[in-house]
Each structure stands twice: as structure tokens, then as C-alpha cells.
Amino acid sequence: MEYFTLNNGTKMPAEGFGVFQIPDPVQCEEVVYNAIKTGYRLIDTAASYMNEEAVGKAVKRAIADGLVTREELFITTKIWVQDQENEETAYQAIRTSLKKLDMEYVDLILLHQAMKDYFAAYRGMEKAYREGLVKAIGVANFFPEVLTNLCETVEIMPAVNQIEMHPFFTQEKAIENMRRYNVVPQAWGPLDEGRHGIFTDPELTAIGSRYGKSAAQTALRWNVQRGVSIIPKSTHVERMEQNIDIWDFSLTDEEMKTVSAKDLGHSEIINHYDPDLVRVLDNMKIHG
Length: 288
Ligand code: NAP
Fold this sequence. Notes:
8-stranded parallel sheet; 13% strand; alpha/beta; two-stranded antiparallel sheet; 11 helices; binds NADP nicotinamide-adenine-dinucleotide phosphate
């Protein structure tokens, strides 16, 4: 496992484990416990995933069983749009997440979307950062122009921007812009959530087979090798093991180019430029 040093000196594992779409608390606790047992040290959750309690329980159990210490873990959570109304709602959302996780701090907190009053919400994160409730602050789904405006304005620079990135949506320009501001790019959906036949893709399979690796491992390796942090999700232990077994091989420059050439130039998971979607997200409530 390699680590990225964030712009405040904090170390973040280059690969983590995502827990989106595991709403069942019993299953989520088991999955996160297994992920830690498998070797994952970064867990990526969010208030809107409705599983922070289960993540917290799994972490507690893993620590009690001597698998890991809290200091060895890197826990990320996110503030949902509903709580990005103002500085106080964002700050209180962080306190609520900490309560649900049953933790004194999280390693990274992200604004989940560039929606509502995200500048005010960002100040809520800055306040929590100064108080030590969060070790680093960042954003998710901030596109180049929005991230640039944020970075040119705020007091504490975002450490991470989590956006969709995989071989079918490479986002090279967005990465270039993040580098300019020393923001670590982190890929959500690094396996394209299984779209485009990624697990049986002939080119990814052929490249992987040269190293005894799968198409999924090739896709994940490609992202970390270009300096992008990844947080693949799987409820299956054998896939968790496979997805983290990417640190003993390297792709050649030509193989990197072959993977990058699969880019479609747009997402087929979500269209943030669609006003209807923005309305849905702006009105999605996760609490009363
Ligand atoms: P993903 O990791 O790209 O793909 C997950 C899917 O791939 C699941 O259906 C999983 O199935 C399957 N899978 C995983 N490894 C596999 C393998 N080796 N072989 C075959 N199938 C495999 O998608 P994601 O969960 O959307 O993204 C990862 C994480 O990013 C999320 O969990 C979440 O933490 C974060 N995320 C953030 C945002 C945001 O807006 N910030 C948005 C989406 C996601 P099984 O589970 O059945 O094994």
C-alpha cells in the first residue's frame, strides 16, 4: 500500500474501501469488518449512505479484536446537500456524523456536492478542522471551474476532490487542474460501477493477463499509477482481496495509454449538468 501526503501533511492510504449502496446495517458492519481484515485502512462513507453507525461498529470491533488501531485507519465521511444550507448546518452535520460513527474525529470530511450554499458549508468544515473534529477537509463532485473558484477563495485549501474516474471517464483535464492546487484526486466508481462490461473488457483483460491480474485489477492499477486515489466497493471478500492486490505490478507507458484511450469523455452514471438531477439532489432529505 502506498500513501498520499495531503496538503496539510496528513497521510492518506492511496487505496480505500467504499461503502455506497450497502444500507443494511448488519451487512455493512460485516463488510467493513472484512475489508479491514483484508487490509483496507481507508473507509469511505457519507451521511447520505445511511450506514455511518454500521461503519463505526465495524471499526470498533476491528480495534477490539486487535486487527488495527484507530490511528492506522483513515475514515472519510461527507456532508449531504441538505446540510450545506449554511455554516452552522454543515458544522452540526459533522457533529451528527461523529456521533453516528461513535468517533472523536474523522480523518477527512467532504462536501458531497457543489450545491446549496457550499461556501458557507465549507466554512463549517473549516471550523470543525480548527477544532480538531476533522483532520482534513475536501470536496466531492467539484468540476474544474467550480473547484478553481473555491481554491481561489477559501482560507484552507481542500485536500481532496473525489470525482468519478475510471477507464471510460478519465477526467485528465480535471486532474491537471487539481494538481495545480495540490488537491489529491480521488476516484469514486473506479470500476465504473460495473458498466461497459469493464470486468470482461478484452483490452483490460489482455493487459492484466500479462501480469496474472484481472481486468478490474488493471483498471484500478491504472488509476493509482497516474496518481489517483481509489475507493472500490465490494460486498464479496474474494473481490475485496482482488481489488487490493494491485501493488506488486506496474503497467508500461503503452499500456497506460491503451487504458486511457477508452475514455468516452463523459459519465454514464450521473449527469451533474442536468437541471432535473440538481433539483432532485437539492431536495433529497436524509433527515427531518
Ligand atoms: P465501484 O467501486 O466502481 O463498483 C462497485 C461494483 O463493482 C459493485 O457492484 C461490486 O459488486 C462490483 N465489483 C467490485 N469489485 C469487483 C470485482 N473485482 N469483480 C467483479 N465485480 C466487482 O462503484 P461505487 O461503489 O459507486 O464507487 C466506489 C465508492 O466511491 C463508493 O462505495 C463510495 O464510497 C464512493 N462514491 C462516492 C460518490 C460521490 O458522489 N462522492 C459517488 C459514488 C460512489 P459487489 O459489491 O456485489 O461485489
